[in-house]
Design brief:
globular, 60 residues, single chain, 4 helices
């Protein structure tokens, strides 16, 4: 699965979250990517990127 560059750059800034993301199943990765990518406004996309990082870091 191709990760959009802006999501990859954001994950690169958060190595712990990136490691968790890389261990997710392809379907879970797809859901995160879809959720962030479907945001229409830049502000919403940024909030969702931060939310994705928080959710990844809180996951078991």
């Amino acid at each position: 699965m191709k990760i959009p560059e802006y999501i990859q750059v954001h994950l690169d800034k958060h190595p712990d979250a990136k490691g968790i993301f890389n261990r997710l199943s392809p379907s879970h990765k797809k859901e995160y990517i879809k959720w962030v990518s479907e945001a229409r406004a830049d502000d919403t996309q940024k909030r969702r990127l931060e939310g994705m990082i928080e959710m990844l870091l809180k996951s078991p």
